[in-house]
Design brief:
The protein has 111 residues and is α/β, with parallel strands linked by helices. It is built from five helices and five strands. It has one domain. Strand 1, helix 1 and strand 2 form a beta-alpha-beta unit. It is globular, with a radius of gyration of 12 Å.
Length: 111
């Protein structure tokens, strides 16, 4: 399972997550830094990414359109990369389970 980090999350996280979430990326690394949220949603869906974000926008899309893609909504505010990494890694099992369950469209993670 691969993660697509939203614009508000550092691209530097990708190298720290690759061992646990191979193939992960960040929107700027894919040339999507000027893309709308809808374009990012479509890209994630077409390329089988789970979207990781700090914003409610993608959660709202999941309510409107369902999934995929899975949305991982980090409800921790702006935090250092180390905190974001720890939240994702400590919840890896829940993320993996949600990714394989077509009935789950959003996972909310707290610090």
């Amino acid at each position: 399972m691969k993660l697509l980090l939203d614009q508000n999350l550092s691209y530097r996280l990708v190298k720290h997550l690759d061992e646990f979430f191979p193939g992960s990326s960040q929107v700027a690394l894919l040339g999507l830094d000027a893309a709308s949220d809808q374009q990012i949603w479509r890209y994630a869906k077409d390329h089988q990414y789970a979207i990781v974000t700090l914003d409610a926008d993608f959660h709202e899309f999941s309510l409107l359109w369902g999934g995929p893609p899975l949305v991982i909504w980090l409800k921790c505010g702006n935090q250092p990369k180390s905190v974001i990494k720890e939240i994702l890694l400590s919840n890896r099992q829940a993320i993996t389970q949600a990714f394989s369950d077509p009935e789950v469209w959003c996972v909310e993670l707290y610090s």
